[in-house]
Amino acid sequence: MEPEGLVVAGVFFDGRSAQRHDVTLSLDGAQLYLRGAGCERRDAVSVLRISAPLGRTPRLIRYADGAVCEVRDAAGFDALLESQGQGRWLHRAESSARIVVASLLLVAALIAAGLYWGVPLAANGVAAEMPASLVRQFSRQTLDVLDHQWLQPSTLPSSRQDALRVAAQRLRSAEGSPLAFKLVFRASKTMGPNAFALPDGTIVLLDELVALADNDDELMAVVAHELGHVRHRHGLRLMAQGAAVGLLATWWFGDVSTLLATAPTVLAQAHYSREFETEADDDAVRTLRASGIAPECLATLLRKLAVTQKGRESQGFGGLLDSHPALLARARRVDGEVSAGR
């Protein structure tokens, strides 16, 4: 029995054939009642996809099974929906610029919050659980990328390299235990005096930084800083964050085939954040003090690096030379930590 009330005409296609059916539409509570020659159905309005009103264009009702109904009397159909409140909120939302703008801002805020808090939190968990074999693989591939794009073989004599490796054996954790890492040497015409750590504990010292330092203690301060990045898994966390953002993008746009292949490059080009640099500096102060090396050496070398950095553009690499925060500000903060005995 057809419900009483407003009735509008439409053309129905069942989605299985090209045959059209002239039908009438009416509302029975929260259900849309469709009736015509050879077809009759009731569907909850909430599960239907109804096109938004656009001038005098026909309204389209899309059903879950692929059927479609075209309603040319758009005004009559609006009145039908409004008669029992079925289209009121949606119509107002679509017609209100304030609601549209507020909705867009809400979505943008949720995305920003996810990127700012959610992604780093998830990345921290991923980095903590990453298998050692995968860490070694990423580190090896990252060094290959760097060797290909930015680095050249070291020109330091083997005896000098060996002497620095022996000096590095003095480094101890705050608890006094030896620190496990591998010290390697490279040169770079583009990076200048710099050093960086790979997630597996490989510390790369550049010849230009060795030449800048006045003594080995200053170089050990650099190594201690880079070990702070390793200890807190900063490189892995950055890589996991980049992969998470990339995954969201590829989920939206498609093509995830190259995501893991680009991870070493992302790691190689990543900047450390202010938080990461501060954490590594604090870790270095504790390591130097436990190793019997004056922590002031770190601040001294940071000031020397600040002088060499003037006029140089960042190379996009997250090593000791990273300018976030500024090197002089970091040096002053290290002095404060040393004076406070922390």
Automatic annotation (TrEMBL):
CDD domains attached to this UniProt entry: M48C_Oma1_like
DUF7092 domain: residues covered: 8-83
Transmembrane spans: 99-119
Pfam families from the UniProt entry: DUF7092 (PF23368), Peptidase_M48 (PF01435)
Keyword Membrane: yes
Superkingdom assignment: Bacteria
Domain Peptidase M48: 168-336
Keyword Ion transport (UniProt): no
Sample GO molecular function, one term: metal ion binding
InterPro entries in the cross-refs: DUF7092, Mito/Outer_Membr_Metalloprot, Peptidase_M48
Cofactor note: Binds 1 zinc ion per subunit.
Cofactor(s) the protein needs: Zn(2+)
Record GO biological process: proteolysis involved in protein catabolic process
GO cellular component: membrane
Family listed: Belongs to the peptidase M48 family.
Protein's name according to its UniProt entry: M48 family metallopeptidase
Originating organism: Solimonas marina
